[in-house]
């Protein structure tokens, strides 16, 4: 927005506002200040209407029902507010990639809000029916992918790129929108499954957003893209600024979400942030790399799939409880121990994902 205002009212835009690096850091700081400063008022507001807090699943470790019973949810609203305002201020709003990613984040946030609202109003853990959530997520993902395809060169419109290989492209033809929608919806729900402990999901999201901020910056610069032999997507560098805003909003939220959490992200935040990072991976043509960088989210999702599938076949459980972070809680690990160790795992996955940019 500032870029457009300067362009409209000044003969020359100050050079500093042209630099992606400056605007990324400015977006990060702005989003952090919004999230951090508005946090107390936001928490007071939601507590006013959520006197009993988020309903807790009966099968989770006992301390959850004791310690988290009155903790309010829908903290994703704070995240989305900070992300949206900072993005609107510091990005070039004429860039279509910004609107695609922000649109997915806000729409998925709306789906999550409906789910959280139903859980609160019914006082149980059954919110919006799963099939409805998936249909809404898939439909909006198809629309977003359709618009994203208009931004890519013809040689990449229906192709999937692979890490570690210089020129390996897989043409999915008509099936590419199905694949891309699966990535976006899968990322959204993977983050949602991980969001079961205080601070567990938001820190890996911050790490992932940092990684994809760098990927966006490199992929949007022709010289860097050619040197690293990664897809060059014109205009996707602007997503670096949005990723900066996501990091800042996440850091401000983590201040209040760190154990013991004063507020929980809820589906409002987890679905939105997961969808946003999934959409960024699709636009930058790094869908496979997302599975590496977001390896923690993949592990959490796979643990649920294995648990459910194995139980249906044998009526027995592999894990004490799924997602897998609850398994370690059941084994006696403290919540803070699970959280920090999973953060370490997330950092290792992120470093492995970033290494694919050079190892080709």
Descriptive notes:
- The protein is mostly helical.
- The chain has one domain (2-355).
- The chain has helices at residues 2-9, 20-49, 62-67, 76-90, 96-122, 130-149, 176-194, 202-219, 222-228, 239-257, 266-283, 287-293, 295-314, 324-330, 335-355, and strands at 159-161, 169-171.
- A two-stranded antiparallel sheet has the order 1-2.
Short description:
The protein is 67% helix and 2% strand. With 360 residues, the chain is mostly helical. It has a two-stranded antiparallel sheet with strand order 1-2.
Strand order of the largest sheet: 1-2
Roughly how many Å is the radius of gyration?
20 Å
Give the total of domains: 1
Largest sheet: 2 strands, antiparallel
Q: Kindly state the mean pLDDT as a whole number?
A: 90
Number of helices: 15
| Distance between the ends | 38 Å
Strand content: under 5%
Helix share bin = 55-70%
* SSE run: HHHHHHEEHHHHHHHHH
Shape label: globular
Counted beta strands = 2
Which class do the helix and strand fractions yield?
Answer: mainly alpha
Low-confidence stretches: none
Element layout with pairings:
Blueprint lengths: L1 H8 L10 H30 L12 H6 L8 H15 L5 H27 L7 H20 L9 E3 L7 E3 L4 H19 L7 H18 L2 H7 L10 H19 L8 H18 L3 H7 L1 H20 L9 H7 L4 H21 L5
Antiparallel strand pairs: 1-2
Helix pairs in contact: 2-4, 2-10, 4-5, 4-10, 4-11, 5-6, 5-11, 6-7, 7-11, 7-13, 8-10, 8-11, 8-15, 11-12, 12-13, 12-15
Task: Quickly list its features.
globular, 360 residues, single chain, two-stranded antiparallel ribbon, 15 helices, mainly alpha
């Amino acid at each position: 927005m500032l870029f457009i205002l300067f362009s409209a009212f000044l003969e020359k835009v100050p050079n500093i506002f042209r630099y992606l690096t400056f605007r990324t850091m400015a977006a990060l700081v702005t989003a952090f200040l919004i999230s951090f400063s508005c946090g107390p008022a936001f928490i007071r507001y939601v507590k006013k209407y959520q006197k009993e807090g988020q309903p807790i699943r009966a099968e989770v470790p006992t301390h959850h029902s004791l310690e988290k019973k009155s903790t309010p949810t829908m903290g994703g609203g704070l995240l989305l507010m900070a992300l949206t305002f900072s993005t609107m201020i510091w990005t070039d709003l004429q860039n279509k990639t910004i609107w695609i990613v922000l649109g997915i984040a806000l729409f998925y946030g709306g789906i999550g809000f409906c789910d959280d609202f139903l859980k609160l109003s019914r006082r149980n853990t059954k919110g919006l029916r799963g099939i409805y959530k998936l249909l809404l997520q898939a439909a909006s993902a198809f629309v977003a992918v359709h618009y994203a395809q208009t931004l890519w060169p013809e040689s990449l419109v229906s192709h999937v790129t692979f890490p570690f290989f210089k020129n390996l492209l897989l043409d999915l033809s008509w099936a590419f929108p199905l694949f891309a929608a699966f990535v976006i919806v899968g990322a959204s729900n993977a983050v949602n499954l991980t969001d079961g402990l205080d601070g567990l999901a938001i820190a890996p999201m911050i790490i992932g957003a940092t990684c994809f901020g760098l990927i966006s910056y490199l992929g949007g610069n022709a010289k860097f893209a050619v040197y690293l032999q990664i897809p060059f997507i014109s205009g996707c560098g602007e997503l670096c600024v949005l990723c900066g805003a996501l990091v800042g909003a996440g850091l401000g939220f983590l201040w209040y979400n760190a154990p013991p959490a004063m507020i929980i992200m809820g589906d409002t935040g987890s679905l939105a942030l997961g969808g946003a990072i999934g959409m960024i991976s699709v636009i930058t043509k790094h869908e496979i790399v997302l599975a590496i960088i977001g390896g923690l989210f993949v592990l959490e999702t796979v643990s649920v799939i294995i648990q459910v599938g194995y139980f249906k076949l044998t009526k027995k459980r592999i894990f004490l409880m799924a997602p897998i972070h609850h398994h370690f809680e059941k084994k006696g690990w403290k919540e803070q121990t699970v959280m920090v160790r999973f953060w370490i795992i997330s950092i290792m996955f992120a470093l492995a994902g970033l290494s694919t940019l050079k190892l080709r």
